[in-house]
Design brief:
Structural class: alpha+beta
Strand order of the largest sheet: 2-1-3-4
Radius of gyration: 18 Å
Number of strands: 4
Shape: globular
Strand content: 15-25%
Largest sheet: 4 strands, antiparallel
Number of helices: 7
């Protein structure tokens, strides 16, 4: 039997608004095993992004709140982790590719700074080494002139390049 890497059990997430409580996610349950791909699909507004952000513990509290359920990563409840522990896990153990490239990249930081941030956080690399890795990443996804592109800001990339 293959080990479950991620388990989401009966997840419910709500947001407090001026108009009252909005139940964004109710009763979501799924698991992901090693070497398995799971797609979360549904209509716009059905809770896909809130579910993914909840797993990553990126829902701001308040106004959001995980009301019930468990999120287990390799059998450990992510709710028991401090924010400092979550920062070590995000990008290292779990990651998320945001749907909209225009809102996913910080417009005030260069593309290079955003790519190397995770490398510098999770790997024992110098800034120069992280830049070299970032250049290779840009090459892998077909970005021309990757060394120059590291110094550019997201608005200087086309929509397709931002999704790369």
């Amino acid at each position: 039997m293959t080990e479950k890497l991620l388990e989401v059990n009966d997840l419910a997430v709500s947001f407090t608004t001026h108009g009252g409580e909005v139940q964004a996610v109710r009763g979501v349950t799924f698991h992901v095993k090693k070497s398995e791909t799971v797609a979360i699909v549904g209509e716009s507004g059905c809770g896909k992004s809130v579910t993914a952000q909840s797993i990553m513990r990126l829902i701001p509290e308040p106004p959001g709140k995980i009301k019930q359920g468990k999120i287990l990563l390799k059998g450990v409840d992510l709710a028991s982790f401090s924010e400092k522990q979550m920062r070590k896990i995000r990008g290292n153990e779990i990651g998320m590719i945001f749907q909209d490239p225009m809102t996913s990249l910080n417009p005030t930081l260069t593309v290079g700074d955003q790519i190397t941030e995770g490398l510098l956080t999770h790997e024992s690399l110098t800034k120069t080494e992280a830049d070299e890795v970032a250049i290779n990443i840009l090459k892998l996804v077909g970005i021309a002139n990757p060394k120059e592109r590291l110094k550019q800001y997201p608005h200087q990339f086309s929509g397709g390049m931002r999704q790369g």
